[in-house]
Specification:
With 332 residues, the protein is of the alpha+beta class. The chain has 16 helices and 10 strands. It is elongated.
């Protein structure tokens, strides 16, 4: 293994000589895709993120990706996606690979300070074992499915450039569509109906000296920030999770969190991992009559909490404060 800077010519040359090319790049550009040209009989496996916020922010280009895949040919490409892919891997056959920091863009390969570890044939073969394990965590996406997603969402994403894009109904529809492609149909159900949000609010209002005032302020919109939805969406999603065996095991540790604290740092790694996996698995869960949707909540939560937000906390403040409160409510 040797450490080096990434090089466009080196990557292009390796790909042209290879018969099996794997690229894992969370972010990519139209130009970067032109560097990945396998030989006429070669195949390309492309891994990337499937996050509408990336498209809106301009750090990924699904229309350019579609054109690239169509040019290479559907029979010679495989597209796999994940909401929160971060791994950067450039691999050709079982003989050469880079792992490191650069995405598939000119800035990453020229002006940014990036580093790759270039692996030899034996090391690349060992990397293949890890790649096979990672592959099972990604969702294969067909070219027709990618095309349908782009056609349905491109106008909304390209036209919404203001700071409140994330709140727009059209953008939320794009997030919901991404969840439909990434997640299986939800099978979530309850033996007993979920109690309405008003019961939860009635439960916490007498606890005014203990409950973070932010929650009640948001629910009643006293802050004027229009965050009632954060409280509502968090309540119903957390009730589903904490009523499930995977979440119920954490109720004891959650009710032990002091309510006067901001509890984000007190949420255990086990809880966070189980919650994010639950949200990924049931992302399409919704109830139109009650007015909650897991997909809506994912649009305001950071990645490590199972959401799509990468630049800032989104709705994590409301959500984290809700966790011990909902646990107490269900425990009562």
């Amino acid at each position: 293994m040797r450490l080096r800077r990434p090089d466009i010519q080196e990557l292009t040359s390796r790909c042209e000589q290879g018969t099996a090319v794997l690229i894992s790049a969370p972010f990519y550009s139209q130009e970067g895709l032109t560097w990945v040209r396998p030989n006429p009989g070669g195949r390309v496996e492309f891994w990337t993120r499937f996050n509408p916020r990336d498209w809106a922010a301009g750090v990924s280009d699904p229309p350019a990706l579609l054109r690239y895949l169509e040019t290479v040919g559907e029979e010679r490409v495989s597209l796999r996606v994940h909401r929160a892919l971060h791994a950067k891997i450039y691999q050709v056959d079982a003989t050469w690979s880079w792992i490191g920091s650069p995405n598939l863009s000119r800035a990453a390969f020229t002006s940014n300070i990036e580093l790759v570890a270039e692996l030899n044939a034996g090391e690349t073969e060992s990397l293949g074992t890890i790649v096979n394990d990672l592959r099972s965590s990604l969702k294969e996406l067909s070219i027709p499915t990618l095309r349908a997603y782009i056609e349905a969402c491109k106008d909304a994403i390209q036209q919404l450039e203001d700071a409140d894009i994330w709140k727009h109904d059209d953008f939320q529809a794009a997030v919901a569509m991404a969840d439909e492609y990434l997640s299986p149909p939800s099978t979530l159900h309850h033996a007993a109906p979920i109690r309405p949000l008003r019961d939860f609010i009635s439960f916490i209002e007498p606890m005014i000296d203990e409950v973070p005032q932010t929650i009640l302020d948001h629910h009643h919109n006293l802050s004027g920030q229009n965050r009632q939805g954060h409280v509502k969406q968090s309540y119903y999603a957390l009730t589903h999770f904490l009523s499930d065996p995977r979440g119920n095991q954490y109720i004891g540790e959650l009710i032990a969190i002091p309510l006067g604290d901001y509890p984000r740092s007190r949420l255990s790694p086990g809880f966070v991992e189980a919650w994010a996996a639950f949200l990924d698995e049931h992302a399409t869960t919704h109830d139109s009559d009650v007015g909650y949707s897991f997909s809506t909540l994912r649009n305001v939560l950071p990645e490590h909490m199972g959401g799509y937000v990468t630049n800032g906390g989104g709705g994590i403040g409301s959500f984290a404060r809700m966790v011990p409160l909902v646990a107490r409510f269900l425990n009562e």
